[in-house]
Write a structure and sequence with these properties.
The structure is a single chain. The model has no long low-confidence stretch (mean pLDDT 95). The radius of gyration is 15 Å and the shape is globular. It is α+β, with helices and mostly antiparallel strands. The chain has one domain: Hotdog Thioesterase (Thiol Ester Dehydrase, Chain A, Roll), CATH 3.10.129.10. The chain has a six-stranded antiparallel beta sheet. It is 25% helix and 43% strand.
Length: 140
Amino acid sequence: MDDYKEKILKVCNESSKNTMMETLQIEFVDVGADYLVAKMPVNSKVHQPDGVLHGGATVALAETVGSMASYIFLDAQKMFIRGIEIAANHVKGVRDGEVFAKAVIVHKGRTTQLWDIKITNAEGDLISVCKLTTIALPKK
């Protein structure tokens, strides 16, 4: 991995300390020109009572990776980022292992951004499809 990618991933992962992302063990693992990837372990911390990955944990992973992608692809020195809408379709259950969320930019406007986020398991099977809209507002 080149130094630029390493630096971005380090900043992303350090920003997760003492947050929900740390609690869920979300880790940023890859970044490209128009995408960011994070992973999350599937264990009892993120299970529904019947032992399947909770949809809310999946959505937390999706919003995390999409919001962080907005943060790194916009001018974070001048703007702050917030998620304003998220939609998710869960298509396959997961009981263990890891899931990966890849956020890809669909629209990068000055104020709003639209992200397509696919959640897959380690084998590449589609688990969920999410759409996240973020807003970038000027820091005062």
